[in-house]
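Subject: Sanity check before I submit

Could someone independently write out the structure tokens for this chain? I want to compare against mine line by line before I put it in a report. The sequence has 124 residues.
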Amino acid sequence: MKKRKTTECGKLEQKCEVLWRKVILKRDPVCRLCHKRPSVHSHHIVFRTEGLATKFDLDNGAGLCLVCHGIAHDTPGKQIGTAYSLVGVRGYEALKDMAREIIYSANRYWFLMKVEQLEAELDR
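---
Independent answer below. Compare away.
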């Protein structure tokens, strides 16, 4: 069982995760890879563990169906090919560069700003 984040920043981060997923699925109602099935997973192009700078960036997300999401994660070597299919080589490299940025101000205010941005995007 996952440990719950109980700090204020932890709760704000969880809220960002929920909002990010909702925005991605609203933006991409059909799978961005096969263009056939409905999107049910919000996929991070550059894995969310690689950097906070891209974790909630909407350019780093794609709505995928169950089948394509499984392929994107479970097929060795397929992750890069999937990323290239979604954003191109240059787009992927730009996201990787952004992910390497160190977020020094990931405090309450940073998360509040992200929540605000994601809520505004969801209301569009």
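---
OP: Matches mine. For the report I'm noting this point. The beta strands are 41-44, 61-64.
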